[in-house]
Amino acid sequence: MLISYGAVLVAGLMPVVCAGIAKSGFKGYDNSDPRAWLARQTGFRARANAAQANCFEAFPFFAVGVILALLTGVEPDWVDALAMLFIAFRVAYIFFYVTDKAKWRTMVWSGAYVVVLALFAMAMLNLHPA
Questions:
Q1: Could you tell me if 4 and 76 are in contact, meaning their C-beta atoms sit under 8 angstroms apart?
Q2: What pLDDT is stored for residue 24 in this prediction?
Q3: CB 3.0 to 4.6 Å from 18: which of 51, 56, 86, 104, for a disulfide?
Q4: Cα(81)–Cα(116) distance, rounded to whole angstroms?
Q5: All domains in the chain, ordered by first residue
C-alpha cells in the first residue's frame, strides 16, 4: 500500500477528530441538535469546529491531487512524501487553530496548500503516456 493512500484516509478522518475536540469533556453537549449547540460555542470549541469545517474543505483538493499525481505517473515516492508533508501541515494547522495561534495557523495552512498545488503541478507535467 502506498503511504499516500493512508494519508488520504487520515485527511478524511481529520474532521471527525476536530469535532471530537470541540465536543470533548463537555457535560451539556446536545446530541439532538449538535449543529446549533456547536454554533453557540466559544473559545477552543468554536475554533475546533471551524477547523473541522476547514478540514472538510481541504480534503477534496488534497485527495484529487494525490489521485491525479498517481494516475499520471508521478513517482509514488514523491507523492508519498508530499502526502505525509500535507498531513504534518494539517495536524499542525489543527493544533494552532485550537490553541489560537493565528499567525502559525496561517503559515501551516499555506504550506499544506502549496503541497497540494505541487501535486497538481507534478500531475500536469506527467500527462504524457509512460
A1: yes
A2: 86
A3: 51
A4: 12
A5: 3-125 (1.20.120.550)
Q: What is the pLDDT of residue 10?
A: 98
- Chunk the chain into consecutive blocks of 10 residues (it has 130) and report each block's average pLDDT, rounded to whole numbers: 92 96 82 86 94 97 97 94 98 98 98 98 76
C-alpha cell at 95: 493544533
How many residues can be counted in the chain?
A: 130
- The pLDDT assigned to 25 comes to 80
| Alpha carbon separation from 130 to 46, 74, 105, 122, 127 (Å, rounded) | 48, 10, 39, 14, 9
Q: Output the nine-digit C-alpha cell for 62.
A: 488534497
In angstroms, the CA 115 to CA 40 distance is: 34
